[in-house]
Amino acid sequence: MRVVTLDRPDKANALTETMLASLAEAAETARDDAAAGTGARALVLTGTGKVFSAGADIDAARAGLATSPLWERLSGAIAGHSGITIAALNGSCAGGAMGMILACDLRLATPGAKLFYPVMKLGFLPQPSDPGRLRALVGPARAKRILMAGEKVTAEEALAWGLVDHLAASGDLVQTAESLAADVLAASPDHASAIKHLIG
User: Fold this and answer.
1) Which of 10, 26, 94, 165 has the greatest number of CB atoms lying within 10 Å of its CB?
2) pLDDT tens figures, 57-98
3) CB-based contact 47:53 (threshold 8 Å)
């Protein structure tokens, strides 16, 4: 199992271009290694501090990061992973950071965390693949509540909606992710990939 951790807690793990590029490279390496049968069949994304990620760093977003192709590159690599991918949200997740968790197979969150994607208010478009993934999880009306009405959804509401799959205390998140990935980790790469492909 490979764990990738956002580590800028003093800035609520707000993403800079360098961080986003590093995340994309890590996800691509994990995807390619898993496909070759040489790497971990489980990829876990988490963060340090009380917030998973506030999304794009405001200064970086204004400088062009909000429309960077790196967002789609990251979410595409996560979605293309042949094993299991899990977002272990140690706190709230906002803005563009929603894309990487929507691309994961499963999402864990701490009680009280909030998920929101205020693109309408900020004047940006969501990344191209995000609305479809969001709609698949929560349905069209709830996707509009998040993307158009700017609704902040608590982890408890997100669990009821299907946006989050499990709630766990912050200190238990990675352990819970490992437990959920146990069968995949014990299986052959081809078997895990075949079952994931059948699910779609």
Assistant:
1) 94
2) 988 888 899 899 999 999 999 999 999 999 999 999 999 999
3) yes
Residue 115 · residue 92 · CB < 8 Å = yes
Contact 82, 38 (CB under 8 A): no
**Mean pLDDT of all residues belonging to the chain:** 95
* Structure-token pair, residue 36: 């070759």
**Is there a contact between 99 and 67 (Cβ–Cβ < 8 Å)?**
no
Confidence band of 124 (pLDDT split at 50, 70, 90)? confident
User: For the chain, how many residues are written?
Assistant: 200
Its pTM surpasses 0.90 = yes
Cα 176 to Cα 2: distance, rounded to the nearest angstrom: 14
* Among the listed residues 162, 171, 54, 170, the one whose alpha carbon sits nearest the alpha carbon of residue 111: 170
Sheet of strand 51-53, all strands in order from the earlier edge strand to the far edge: 51-53, 92-94, 114-116, 153-154
The one-letter amino acid at 102: L
CB 33 within 8 A of CB 39: yes
Record the tokens describing residue 191, joined without a space. Answer: 């078997």
pLDDT digit string (tens) for 149-173?
A: 999 999 999 999 999 999 999 889 9
